[in-house]
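TOKENISE THE FOLD
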Amino acid sequence: PAPPLSDRHPPTRRDPDRSTDGCVASDLMSGWLRVLLWSLGGVAALVALLWTFQRRLIYFPAGNVPPIESLLSGWVETTVTTSDGERLGVWYAEPATADAPIVIVFNGNAGTRAGRAPLGEALARSGYGVVLFDYRGYGDSTGSPSEAGLALDARSVRDFAVDIAPGSPIVLFGESLGAAVAIGLAATAPPDALILRSPFTSLADFGRRTRLGQATIERLSRAAALASLKQDRRVALWQALGQEKKPQHQPLFDDQPADDDQDALLPALGKQEEVFADYRSIGLSLRAHPISFYRSHLDELRVSSATDLRDRPNDRQVRVAGLVILRQRPSTAKGITFVTLEDETGTINLVVKPHIWERYYRIVRTRPAWIAHGKLERRSGVTHIIVNRLEDLAEKLGELKTKSRDFR
């Protein structure tokens, strides 16, 4: 039998005032929300994937290092253990002489030390000691590459080079990615020379990949050490001032191009300005000698050059000029000071007696360049000037700054 009417569910009625637009809008909103969530999830997954595999986008390690005998003759094969226990494959040749430099080659981000064998052989033929090695994870080296790991590798190989060639000058040779590794090592353990090949595309790229601060890049710019970036010293200094004072590590952007701002239209330095800037920054210049810019004026003053002294007769009064590169007063010399001047042609030995030293005290103690008057003497094959008068040449040289080596 049918249940009572009171127990039956009332028939569903449709509210004539309720619109279907709200339901449709709600369904559309839910659909878009699902699409948005899926999109965000995909982006997050992609970022996580890039973070996980970023090393594979930077480092391209290879194995299968051929036998050393097939590539290099007279070299030694060994391993170097890093401070965190990894073992690096190494080939090396000792310097030909005790004072010859030893060159440590820092590879790029692909290949093995075998690919640098021609470079190593050429350096060894020239008498240099050479160390070729593979970063961790490359060739037959253990571990896997990372920025911190490569820094440890560099330090360990440098210590190895010092051990096998004690007293030899250390030269760091970095190419491509190895340029950044070499610079990182040089910042903590300064070498005798640093050579970079195909390292950076711009000053901004250099700053980001080396993570050097503004102050360091500014000093390099002043020293014209960034000339390989095809930038004038003034332009490089201008761009250095725009670098971060404390660079932050942003690994996800390591492979993105770092472009410099448009170069400022600054006048290029003249040759004399370049030379003086070299002396202010590093104390010497390979472009020219500062005295050479004043030679015509010195000739008018009848000032002889170092080479001119060869033709001057003994016991003749002469005038010479140059930068002061050494002062020495031995305890056995009875107060006499021996000074070496340098001009564009060579060096000149001066003998400054105590009364001359006292008479020209301000010049001899503080001025970096002199005009010296005195008597030329030759004894036992040594030529020197017995000084009787001094003039301050530095006033004519303006902003030139030099520093002599002083001994007692």
About this structure: The longest helix spans residues 21-58. Confidence is low (pLDDT under 50) at residues 49-54. The longest strand covers residues 317-328. The radius of gyration is 35 Å.
